[in-house]
Amino acid sequence: MLTPMVAGGVVFPGLFLLSKNALQRLPQLRWEEADAVTVSARLVSSVQAVMASTAGYIVSTSCKHIIDDQHWLSSAYTQFAVPYFIYDIYAMFLCHWHKHQVKGHGGDEGGARAPGNTWAVARGYLHKEFLMVLHHAVMVLVCFPLSVVWRQGKGDFFLGSLLMAEVSTPFVCLGKILIQYKQQHTLLHKVNGALMLLTFLCCRVLLFPYLYWAYGRHAGLPLLAVPLAIPAHINLGAALLLAPQIYWFFLICRGACRLFRPRGSPPPSPCQTQD
To answer: pLDDT for 3-33, tens place per residue?
Structure first.
């Protein structure tokens, strides 16, 4: 178990540092540290997402029996990805820190590093990114132990399918980068937004009904009968995992309405302006 976790602990922070240093030091680039940190964090998240979704596809398509079939990647990648969630909490804080400094809230360099100011930035970070930090903490403290201990080698198909939820992440990351560089009205941003909306809907929101349908087909049950046929704690776990996905999908839809609304159009309806 330790080998994949150690590997993940080296790969993800190492890729972040390599990317950040390259963006800052290559003669053709010479990016500011704030830009290099933000783009590097998005790059690492995208790489992890591609790796996770690829592993998930391999696992889910290899398991013909959705309960008993096993694939070594299911446990190996789960262990490998644990350090990513820990690293990403810190990487998101660095992005928030640099954004705070760019906006001019940190004062001079000495004031920016004062303990009181650091704590204020940390509180702002936790307030803004609370749901994402909570999501990462749950992945490490709850989902990882359950996937390793409680499953007892069963349900690799479901774990692989859940890993494929990461398909939408590269589009989310690219969208944030384009917004950071004021490219909201470019064709690339609109195409990326449409792909982000589609992949998030299919791979995160509709994933859970699909998993219920897959179990129903396996057990010979109609879809609506599946929740009554499985233990209550599984329904509760699925609901807790689905809830933030629905919230984030709502935010994506709201952003898409603003993105694709023609310039100079009448003010949006109240349902589009609620914050």
So the answer is: 999 999 999 999 999 999 999 988 887 888 9
